[in-house]
Amino acid sequence: AEAAELRARLRAVRHTVLVLSGKGGVGKSTFSALLAHGLAADETKQVALLDIDICGPSIPKIMGLEGEQVHQSGSGWSPVYVEENLGVMSVGFLLSSPDDAVIWRGPKKNGLIKQFLRDVDWGEVDYLIVDTPPGTSDEHLSIVQYLSATHIDGAVIVTTPQEVSLQDVRKEINFCRKVKLPIIGVVENMSGFVCPKCKNESQIFPPTTGGAEKMCQNLSVSLLGKVPLDPQIGKSCDRGQSFLAEAPESPATLSYRNIIQRIQEYCEQHHLQEEKIM
Amino acid sequence: TFAERANLAGVRHILLVLSGKGGVGKSTLSTELALALRHAGKRVGILDVDLCGPSIPRMLRVQDSAVHQCDSGWVPVFVGQDKAIALMSIGFLLERPDDAVVWRGPKKNALIKQFVTDVAWGELDFLIVDTPPGTSDEHISTVEALRPYQLLGAVLVTTPQ
């Protein structure tokens, strides 16, 4: 009966993309937010951004929605809308203060994630983006399990170039394979820094073992793109503004836009393939 | 039990390295702190309770090591220039380094308890406990398991943004 409830609620979701990483602090939430903004730039598309990082929800701040509350209606919880076609849900909206720690063990976290999927009235959604915490634990197992009620197009896995990140990301790739979650591809963040003054490029996080490129080759996974470091990215996130809108000329914006397009193409293509099969 | 108390009985100070946020440098700091304390002549151990993303073995170049058992429990891996820093991490228990540890809370909690009570640390001045990001199972279990011992306190790591 529970599965039926979830299926009913998620029936109107066309595409679902999970944003994962084994490693923390590589830019999952940043990427999830920009992916949502990028997709919602097409006003004909309805985009939903679900933040299931229960302990460290970054999405409200990054989307400029700190302090917002969730409202209930007859049809369920209402997402918080950034634009008419971009709705957001996060545990951040349920806290009385942004500094409140959510000190929950696994089962309680799973319960909330299920509620997010069952009780939020997303409406008709073209893209559901799910931002996750680092790791391969309760949240990840639960979201894959609950979303089996609908169809997950795939996972985008985020990393940075150094081996300490890649070793966790390889685990995440294995997790995806274990739970049969298709991998759309890998995004390498913080990939080089171009000085705005002298235009010299530096490797702030040197890819001592070949970076994401080598890892993707070794594991037969697609490299969606590399995004250079740009101090404006962190600033935009802190201020809750879309980096893509604030710095349209940045090389990082160009990279992000290319990656977003590739993700869109992947989703659309798979949809066509499925329709063909059906 | 006596056996449980015995393994940490010789540890003078226990230090937790925490952050809500991932990727800010907890494991890096834990490693450098251990090396610096060792350099200052202290007896040091590191307990890595990041079960999903254990970084310490690679940072100390022992990612290919395995752990052995003795009468009082697991023998930590000895690292550093003089092989005098004791290290325990789930990294040493994996069959392959890329194996994902896909465990729910209860299983993680059980291993953390074992790491706290079943590792033969011996006599240490400092035991540094490196943690994963967040405030969940690993953190609750670690603090609960360490409560009977000399918990010095926590160092919190962040970045500016």
From TrEMBL, chain A:
**PROSITE patterns in alphabetical order:** MRP
**Is Transport found in the keyword set?**
no
Keywords of this protein's UniProt record, alphabetized? 4Fe-4S, ATP-binding, Cytoplasm, Iron, Iron-sulfur, Metal-binding, Nucleotide-binding
Q: Which GO terms describe its cellular component?
A: cytosol; nucleus
Single Gene Ontology BP annotation:
iron-sulfur cluster assembly
The protein's matches in Gene3D superfamilies, at most eight in alphabetical order, are given as: P-loop containing nucleotide triphosphate hydrolases
Q: Where in the cell is it found?
A: Cytoplasm; Nucleus
Specify the superkingdom.
Answer: Eukaryota
Q: Locate the AAA+ ATPase domain: which residues? A: 14-185
UniProt GO MF annotations = 4 iron, 4 sulfur cluster binding; ATP binding; ATP-dependent FeS chaperone activity; metal ion binding
Q: Which PANTHER family match?
A: CYTOSOLIC FE-S CLUSTER ASSEMBLY FACTOR NUBP1, NUCLEOTIDE-BINDING PROTEIN NBP35 YEAST -RELATED
Q: What does this protein do?
A: Component of the cytosolic iron-sulfur (Fe/S) protein assembly (CIA) machinery. Required for maturation of extramitochondrial Fe-S proteins. The NUBP1-NUBP2 heterotetramer forms a Fe-S scaffold complex, mediating the de novo assembly of an Fe-S cluster and its transfer to target apoproteins. Implicated in the regulation of centrosome duplication. Negatively regulates cilium formation and structure.
Q: What is this protein called?
A: NUBP1 factor
| Species whose genome carries this gene | Hypocryptadius cinnamomeus
The taxonomic lineage of its organism, from the top, reads: Eukaryota, Metazoa, Chordata, Craniata, Vertebrata
Automatic annotation (TrEMBL), chain B:
Q: Do you know which CDD domains this protein is assigned to?
A: Mrp_NBP35 (cd02037)
Q: List the GO terms this entry assigns under cellular component, sorted alphabetically.
A: cytosol
Q: Which key words tag this protein in UniProt?
A: 4Fe-4S, ATP-binding, Iron, Iron-sulfur, Metal-binding, Nucleotide-binding
Chain segments annotated as transmembrane: none
One GO BP annotation here? iron-sulfur cluster assembly
Q: Which GO terms describe its molecular function?
A: 4 iron, 4 sulfur cluster binding; ATP binding; ATP-dependent FeS chaperone activity; metal ion binding
Q: Which Gene3D superfamilies match?
A: P-loop containing nucleotide triphosphate hydrolases
| PANTHER family, sorted | CYTOSOLIC FE-S CLUSTER ASSEMBLY FACTOR NUBP2 (PTHR23264:SF19), NUCLEOTIDE-BINDING PROTEIN NBP35 YEAST -RELATED (PTHR23264)
Name of this protein: NUBP2 factor
What species does this protein belong to? Hypocryptadius cinnamomeus
Source gene?
Answer: Nubp2
